[in-house]
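Reply to dn_fold:

You asked what the input looked like. This is it:
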Amino acid sequence: MVTGTIEQLTARERDCLRLVGRGMSSKEIALALGLSPLTVDGYLKEAVRTLGASGRREAARVLASHEALSPHAAPLPPQNLGADPPDLAETVLSGVPLPPKRSEAGPRFRVPFLRQGKQINDLDPLNRLMWIIGLALLMLIAVANFLNGLGALWRITS
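and this is what came back:
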């Protein structure tokens, strides 16, 4: 049962609830809004408490139905089903300034494992092959040094 009013919600709480309504997790919302996942959880917890809802999804449904019925509410942005979470941040309608996006234009060191906030590995096949060859060479050097050390120990003890 909803007991609070939508007007009591802050702009960031509304932003978080809108993105929950799109099925985003706290981590995805945090990436989209440039916040910490704990901060997002705090906003959502406060919004749920303010509205008296049973959970974040119910609170998001209440906000969505209020915005759909209210003539002065901002229209909901169209869903970008194929966009990354940072692109979704541009569609939040609160008017609260969002942090600037990180520039991906400059050269950066690409690694062969998942980084924070990435759902997939972003290496192209050539870079992936270079990493495989480089790691194989490092392992070969490590094994050769280990065997060389064992041989030295064998010669010392015999």
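The chain has six helices and no strands.
Hope that clears it up.
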